[in-house]
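To: structure desk
From: M.T.
Subject: fold request, one chain
Message: Could you run this one when you get a chance? Sequence is below, nothing fancy, just the single chain.
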Amino acid sequence: MLYGSECRAVNCVHEQKMGVAEMRMLRWMCGHTRLDKIRNESIRDKTGVAPIAEKMREARLRCFGHVQGRPLEAPVRRCESLVTRHVKRGRGIPIKTWNETVRRDMMYLDISEIMTKDRTQ
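Reply: Done. C-alpha cells follow.
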C-alpha cells in the first residue's frame, strides 16, 4: 500500500481511503469484522501497527530529505525549480503539488527543512 507513496501528493480523501483499507486488513488479520463492533484503537493496540497516514508522512519527509541532499545540478533538483507559465488550467481548486504536501507535513510536525536533512534525529 505504501509503494511509491513518498512521491505522490495526497490529499485528505486519499489518506482517509488508505486508512479505511488499512483497518479492513487489520481487522481481517485479527479475525474480526465490523459487526463485532471492536474499536479501531483496540485493534491497533492488538496488532501494534502505526496509522498509515503517519507512515506516509514519514516516507515523504525521508524522500524530501534525500532530494534536498542532492546537488542543485541533479535532475531531480532541476525539476523542482521548473515553473509552468502561460499554462491554462481548468476551473476549480488547483491541483495539490508534492511540495505543498511536504510543506503541510513539516508544519504538522513543526519541523524545518534543515531538520529533514539531518539523519541523526
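Reply (cont.): The chain is about 55% helix and 0% strand. Let me know if you need anything else for the meeting.
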